[in-house]
Amino acid sequence: MGRLDGKVAIVTAAAQGIGRAVAEAFGREGARVIATDINMDILSELKGKPGIEIRKLDVTKKEEIEALAAEIDRLDILFNCAGYVHHGTILDADEKMWDFSFDLNIKSMYLTCRQFLPKMIAVKSGCIINMASVASSIKGAPNRCVYGATKAAVIGLTKGIAADFVGQGIRCNCICPGTVDTPSLRARINAQPDPEQALKTFLARQPSGRLGKAEEVANLAVFLASDEASFCNGSEYKVDGGWIN
Ligand code: NAD
After folding, report:
1. Which of 10, 20, 21, 16 is nearest to 65 (CA)?
2. Among 134, 137, 184, which is best to mutate for testing ligand 1, by the most ligand atoms less than 8 A from CB?
3. Which tens digit of pLDDT belongs to each residue from 176-193?
4. What is the pLDDT of residues 107-131, one digit of tens each?
5. Which residues form the pocket of ligand 1, taking CB atoms under 6 Å from any ligand atom?
6. How far is Cα 55 from Cα 191, in angstroms, rounded to an integer?
C-alpha cells in the first residue's frame, strides 16, 4: 500500500531536479501525478513511470493554469516547485531580473493557489507544499539576495494560506532545502570562472561534507503530502544536512 494511494497531485517544474524526484516519489506512493513543466523534451522522460501523466504548464502564464484547473475535478496535493536562482548581489540585479524572479518564484504560486485552493475547499481537504529555501528569511546567503527575497515571500505566502484555511481542511507547508545536487546547480557551478573552486566553496559550507540529493527532499515531500502529516501546517521544513543549525 502506498502512502498517497488514491490522491491526485500536481507537481510543477517536474522535468528535472527536485520536482522530478518528487513526481516520481508521489507516483511510487500511489498518487495519480500530473507532472508539469515547460521543457517537454526532458519531461517526456517521465512517461510510463508509475502514476505519472505529463503536461505542459508554464507557471507564469495565468491562462495555462486556468486551463489545467478547468480539466481537473479534484486535487489533493499541489506541489509548487518552479523557481529560478538569480546569482549576484542586489547591485547585479536589474529590474527585469527582479521582476522575472518574483514572477517565477512567487507570483506563480499565487496564481496556482488561487486556481486550485477552491477545489480543495469544496471537499474540505487538501495539501499545498511550496518550494522555499534556507536562503530566504532563514539565512542570508552570498549572491542570493533577490532569490532569498523571493523565497522569504514563499514562506510568508505559505503561512498566510495555512492561517486562512486551516478551518477548511487545508494544510499548507513549505520545504527549505540547503544545497541540492540538481542539473541547475551543476549549471550554476559550471558558469563560474573556476567551476572546481565553485564546487569546493559549496561543499565547504556543508557540515555534512556533501550536497543533498533530490530524493532526500522528495522523502520529506511525500511525508508532508501524506495523511501521516495531518497535524503539520503552516511550517517551513528545512532539509539541509545540518547547514543551518
Ligand atoms: P532545476 O532548476 O534543475 O529545474 C527547474 C525546472 O523548472 C526545469 O525543469 C525547468 O524547465 C522548469 N521551469 C523553468 N521555468 C518554468 C516555468 N515558467 N514553468 C514551469 N516550469 C519551469 O530544479 P531544482 O534545482 O531542483 O530546483 C527546483 C526548486 O527547488 C526551485 O524552486 C529552487 O529554487 C528550489 N531549491 C533548489 C535548491 C538546490 O540546491 N537545487 C535549493 C533550495 C531550493
Report:
1. 10
2. 184
3. 999 999 999 999 999 999
4. 999 999 999 999 999 999 999 999 9
5. 12-13, 15-19, 37-39, 57-60, 81-83, 85, 104, 131, 133, 177, 179-180, 182-185, 214
6. 30
